[in-house]
Specification:
The chain has one domain. Helices cover 32% and strands 28% of the residues. It contains three helices and five strands. The strands form two sheets. It has a three-stranded antiparallel β-sheet with strand order 1-5-2. Strands 3-4 form a two-stranded antiparallel sheet.
Length: 85
């Protein structure tokens, strides 16, 4: 169910013109996002990105972890592989 919802959210973001999605996960759920192709940062690691020409950093604390994924068109097999590895 979670993989299906995440895939739908990514599809909506892609159709809206987004190139990347970002979020926060707990250490317990990091493997789920990694399996879906997301890059998951270490706990307490700042998330760095660019806003226009300026670099910005977003702190995080505890066991929370930033994750991100570059979006691109994918085949429907991505979801099938995530749900039924």
């Amino acid at each position: 169910m979670g993989a299906h919802l995440l895939g739908k959210m990514e599809d909506v973001a892609l159709k809206a013109g987004s190139k990347t999605v970002y979020g926060v996960t707990s250490a317990d759920s990091a493997a789920f996002y990694k399996a879906g192709g997301h890059q998951v940062q270490k706990p307490d690691e700042m998330f760095r990105t660019y806003w226009g020409e300026s670099e910005v950093a977003f702190p995080i604390s505890g066991d929370a972890q930033w994750f991100s994924k570059g979006l691109k068109r994918r085949s429907s097999s991505w979801l099938a592989n995530l749900v039924n590895p």
